[in-house]
Fold this protein.
Amino acid sequence: MYKLILVDDEEEVRKGIVKKIDWGQYGFEIIGEAENGIEALEIAEKVVPDVVVTDIKMPFMDGLTLSKKLREKFPTTKIIILTGFDEFEYAQKAINLDIVEYILKPISSKEMIDMLVRVKAKIDEEIAQKKNIETLKEHYKKSLPLLKEKFLGSLITSRINKDEILEKSHNYGLNLHGKGFVVTALSADLDTATTINSDDRDGKHFKETTTFGISEGKEITKFAVLNISEEIVNKYGSGIVFLHNDYIVIIFTSENDNRDALMGKALFILEEIRQCMEKYHHFTVTIGVGTFCKDIVNISYSYENAITALDYRLILGNNRVICIEDVEPQCSKRVVFDELKERSLMSCIKVGTTEEIIETVEALFKEIMDEKTSFQDYQIYLLEILTTILKIAKDLNVDMDNLFGVNYNLFVEMYKFKDLKEVKGWLIGMCTKIKSFISKERKDTCKLLVKRATEYLNHHYHENDITIDKICKLLYISPTYFSTIFKKETKLTFVNYLTHVRMEAAKELLRSTDLKTFEIAQKVGYSEPNYFSYCFKKIFGISPSEYRKAFKPV
């Protein structure tokens, strides 16, 4: 069933439309009704509808404004406009909003059914195109020749001479000219990819579970992510998409060195990719975003940072976009290690458990004993481990003096132990202490950011232009990460918290002043008095004037 939201300020019209149609028969389920654009947008944020049917003229937010916001947030949602005869030409001006249908009021059952059949066919066709596994495989073979893939893999894993980069990119038809670059890595959350949806040729929608070998299923999943990513990135003309190991890598480029502009565009595109994977293939992807760099020669650092960002899904969860600069604000200057053992140790200290630290260190020492390492090689090996640990501590601002003492020298201490067992226990204890410090600092950072945000709202709630984007610019973090930590700390969404602050201020003004309702609305951040009254009554069950009569002292 496709999810549909019906939006009209006249309840009788909505109920009439609902009763006219056997929605399930035509493949639709009404998951929400709204009487204005603001309510519709709130419902859409929760359920991400396949179709929205909306009237044009409504209070607080009209249908065209709603359509514009839906198109920005949910690009795959189909929008149908309900309009009167005298509004039809006005409605048609919204061509750039990609409206799929216009329906004149009053609406007959036949017109509504015909429209539903057309829209369902369009959605079915889109899903069928994106589900064709053989097409995905063929597209993969043609779009990424072996030499191009090998070059791009080398570009993100090693430092190549700039002249060579420009020459090969020209030969392979790749646009790597620019003054700004960001690398992102997409990883399929394979535990969510258990079924493949298909449509038969008669148009009847059904779900079919197809059994693949583990290896084949993994490859098909990667091809699906690759295909969607290429399609969306090409639509915006913003970068290069290719496979590297188990990741889909996207190199975003910019003609100038404006970091914020490139990051903003990249995050917008990545969010659309994430939504499309969930919608069309019914499994999720987690995306790591590396650091911004100005020179293509240094692009390997951005890629390493993107992979590191993916490690944080163990903390933040899957099905999201994770920016390395959100979770590791200092990472732009840190040294990146390429070797597997160093990355494994780095990962478990940053985001692992105590058990994972023990397992990793045990594995490092097992190699020394199994290979019968010489004393000189043993010393070098331990020094490399210590150097890795110290660099992690430095990059994440770990207070080593506080943890181990001001005069504690790790390199001196290492030689005090009599055997490998003691050294191993010492390293495990040190890594565990550093991990605990990092976890506490991360929690404290989240609390501090949320505290700064709430303090700002408590002092600036009267401003009518407060948005989550404005707060995030002040805090220098992304909206996605901010929303996650704000909800975790306050148990409220950003909008609900701001509304709560404004309504409490409004209640105080109603009790303690003789200001008119429209004056109070302006003082608590509402430019539209009617919408203030609407929100007030929706929350407290009575209008502002009724509240004043009931609670103001005589």
Observations:
- Confidence is low (pLDDT under 50) at residues 194-213, 331-338.
- The longest helix spans residues 420-460.
